[in-house]
Fold NAD-dependent protein deacylase.
Amino acid sequence: MSKIVILTGAGISAESGIETFRADDGLWAQHRVEDVATPEGFMRDPELVVNFYNARRAQAAEVEPNAAHLALALLEAEHHGEVVVITQNVDDLHERGGTQNLYHMHGHLKGALCYACDHRWPAPMVMAPGDACPSCTAPAARPDIVWFGEMPYEMDTLFDHLSQADVFAAIGTSGNVYPAAGFVAEARRAGAHTIEFNLEKSAVGNQFAEHRIGPASQTVSNWVNDLLQR
Ligand SMILES: [Zn+2]
């Protein structure tokens, strides 16, 4: 009855057609990260930021979960033990692929957050700057996204999961940088087997015991088939 904890990053959504902020064309290329992904940028120009996330929300609605998302949902459904998926992604491709035990550590595009009272509610497809909070009525709605300089959600709970992990897998996220680097260290302390899934092999000094190189749609599907002995 082993516990499998999985961290996913931009690489798993990229195969569905979601742009990452390292992409050199499209949505992100038209903006600086400090303008659209920091609380200071939002305070400076809320309209720009709200419109940026409206565009990302629309883009996410147009794409579909890929084989890697579906494989992780299958693993959760059929593994005789617990499967926890932690994602850095703000799209809903894991949910739409069928994953239920899921943490959005960086928030999600389908959420709105009140910066006056911290109330959260489902975001409309098109948010407007100054939308009123349904709880306190302040015109203080913002996308429920964890921006640079803000604290990721539920870190205590995530580290509790990692401290009980038998297997820790990182998919489509650089294993050598935050948060994967901290997560793999905690999982190793717990005695977990650690696996990194990436398009290319990471630099030296990598803490993962096993590396599977290639597109996540293939490598993750193969891994899940191995685990489920299908
Ligand atoms: Zn409020």
Observations:
- The two ends are 18 Å apart (CA to CA).
